[in-house]
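Researcher: Go.
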Amino acid sequence: MSARQFSLPDLGEGLTESEIVAWKVSVGDTVKLNQIIAEVETAKALVELPSPFAGVVSQLFADEGATVRVGDPIVEFDVDGGDVENPRSTQESEAAATAASDGMPAELDAELSPATPPPAERQGVLVGSGPKVESGGRPSRRARAWTADAHGQRPPDVETPDPPAPRRDEARSSSSQTSEERPRSTPPVRKLARDRGIDLTHVRGTGEGGLITRDDVQRVAGSTASLRSAGNGTHAEPQADADARGSREDIRTPIHGVRKATAQAMVNSAFTAPHVTEFLTVDVTAGMNLVRSLASSSAFAGKRITILTLAAKAVILAAKRTPSVNSSWDEAAQEIVQYGHINLGIAAATGRGLIVPNIKDADTLSLDELADALVDLVEAARAGATSPIDLSGGTITITNVGVFGVDAGTPILNPGEAAILAMGAVRRTPWEHNGDIALREVMTLSLSFDHRLIDGEQGSRFLVDIGTILSDPGMVLTIL
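Model: Structure:
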């Protein structure tokens, strides 16, 4: 048997760290090649990590909830000496990569393969790893999503050279030292302690050999004095809004994952692209009538047609008339990249923070296909199942603030994109109609755009085209 370490790979998003959300294996477990061993949270999505080896788990170097830098070892395996990575045929590897593509792209660099084996041993192909394939022509939807970031370019990687993999004896020594310094407990107990804001260094274990048990954590959590002493440097994450409202103590929540990445992206966007926002209030009664008519039509039976569906289609059609809104600024090349396809982003508020998954090649979809794609996108976002592929490569975005009862706003551009449309709430409002005043369904549209890429005339024409389609869908015949 020989020891092989698996380091946290670069998941293809230009990230430098990820959080271990859950281990799917424990020390002593026998695993197969490509068996899922852990679930990690990147700045964009939850990703399942497959095992690069077939063997026995000998060490876990990080606890659940720990943030690990790319290149740091996270698990060690005991494997048969001559069987580092099981060889597979090309067909088997491609099939496995396709099956795992929702959680991990096939174009990832070879960082998923362990750094220690010499080239002669690198016979197998790990799901989600392998060299990038250069090809001419336009790549597939999934490939294009992973060869570009949200604005069509790979974001510049932060220089974080991978440390050399430690020798087995060094790694075991380091691990032993960490184990002695860290309170002894199990992953579920550590998670419970984190949820309750308990510092385990302040907890006396009553289990065998001083092991901290669930009852020990519950006992400390039930004591206000113990909880405060345990909170020295560690703060409980809010359990629920009701708990927060019922307490007068300050609550600190670590910023990581999606919220950390979103905050940084918004700062970069706001201070990089010169934002301009225009507003247009339109009577969308005719558009709402069309939505209701389609929803009750047998041709759209089972389809979830909403005003967002119609607005998405309007954005696609209007972008064909004003293609500059579907572009990005390439600072390195000093070029404007005008896309030949539309990957339509939909901003979604989730429990993990704001994410912007996108519908690949939305300009090729019919209205009913677009409706299905929107439903799939929203349901995946709410379930926390959005894949990194769906979060990369967007070219233009819609954010529907109307669902929160908001009329208008000044949305910040998704980094690298040229435009973002905010849809306000649809309200029944007294409105001039056919020379008289009537109650009409009215909406305010807010368009923010990058003034380096879009001038006032182009932005205004694009916004008016969207408003025209929503207020009088028949006018689409004049735009096509």
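Model: The CA atoms of residues 24 and 37 lie 5 Å apart.
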